[in-house]
Here is the input.
Amino acid sequence: MTVPFSFEVYPPRKPELQAALHATIQALAAAGPEFITVTYGANGSSRDASLDCLRFIRENTFIEPLAHLTCVGTSRAEITAVVDSFIDAGIHMFLALRGDPPEGTEATSDYLGELSSASELVELISERGGDRVTVSVAAFPNGHPQSSTPQQDVEVLLAKQRAGAEFAITQLFFEANDYLTFAAAAADAGVTIPILPGIMPVTSLGRLRRIVEITGERMPVELEAALEAAGTPAEARELGVTHAVELCRALVAGGAPGLHLYAFNEHETVLDVLAQVNQPA
Ligand code: FAD
Here is the structure.
């Protein structure tokens, strides 16, 4: 089974981590992904570091870089200038996001800035880049924390498609049915763009707890218990890889058009997952 795949990395948090990230990117690129995405700190906090990382991918690999961009808390003029500077730097693939307010800020219209949703950013990037750009968006199989019903998440994805999004990448989740049910509901509602499932191999209990806290996803209790019972870090890693491999296999068998792997700036784990997914079962 060979399916298209892609990876996500984040800009280095300290300059001394840059060389290691570059080595990771080279290793990920050698596996032949469709693209490598680079995250963006809401409010533009990582703008320069994200652009440096995207440039590195463009100039040193044969893989297309894809820039996450957020519009929260910025003016239309500011975000337009950022979009133009990324396009001028040769970045032609984007993930248009609203972003979240800084911790401790209330999620009211005060923090939103002039563009209040990802759909508006899709439109802005498409206006600035025309045919040169491909714009993707986020989707939430288990619901965005601020959505009131599962139907709202489908409607919002449909609105992003109408705004010009060409594909979607999902928030991480732990059960194949979370994705498959959402993808079926989206298709019934008229979503025709590919929805790539976002997979994060969880290789330690600490990481699992942290990402559940950040994303608001339901805790996968069986995986949590298994990681808790693991005797060594190597055993925990093995459990995380096996869980991700089984998830990927079920997703592909259920019709997922590709796999987007959150690499956590480390190539061994996601490459291990892919190698096992591609082995005959
Ligand atoms: P939106 O699509 O605008 O949705 C936000 C909320 O508003 C949802 O509850 C939605 O239902 C609601 N909504 C939207 N439009 C309407 C409407 N017209 N009417 C009523 N309600 C509406 N964050 C970062 O800061 N940097 C990153 O690099 C980053 N990368 C991410 C990558 C992926 C794959 C995902 C899934 C998320 C990522 N995030 C990132 C997090 C993201 O910014 C947050 O989840 C944010 O809260 C929502 O962004 P969005 O683009 O989905 O917003």
